[in-house]
Amino acid sequence: MMWRVLPLAIAQSALLAGGQVFLKYALMRMKSFEWTWAFWGSMLTNWQFAACGLCFLLASLLWMYMLKVFPLSVAYPLGSLSYVFGMVAAILCFHETVSVYRWMGVALIMAGCCLIVK
């Protein structure tokens, strides 16, 4: 039964990481923060910002379903998969360098998630 939660956790974590990627792209394109209509208009007409919101909305809906169906002690720790997706996104989208120590952390997160769904 617990292995049923894993695909949902993967999808939810991927949506969270995707939302963060779109948010970073949106912020990179936006003007400097100001309390002006021009700033807020540039934010609200930025398609990456809208995509960020959509990803977060879908992730939240999926999270609500997971909390309804599965124990919190199983669902909540699986949210750490978003760190793994975030690391991969940093490499693929922003060409960041990831150290061996961070990869070791990713491996520990993955091992922990496997132990949780057993």
From TrEMBL:
InterPro entries: EamA_dom, EmrE-like, Small_drug/metabolite_transptr. It is found in: Cell membrane. Its main location: membrane. It comes from Hallella multisaccharivorax DSM 17128. Gene3D superfamilies: 1.10.3730.20. Residues 7-117 form the EamA domain. GO terms for molecular function: transmembrane transporter activity. It holds the Pfam family EamA. GO terms for biological process: lipid A biosynthetic process; lipopolysaccharide biosynthetic process. It is a multi-pass membrane protein. The chain crosses the membrane at residues 47-67, 74-94, 100-117. This is EamA domain-containing protein.
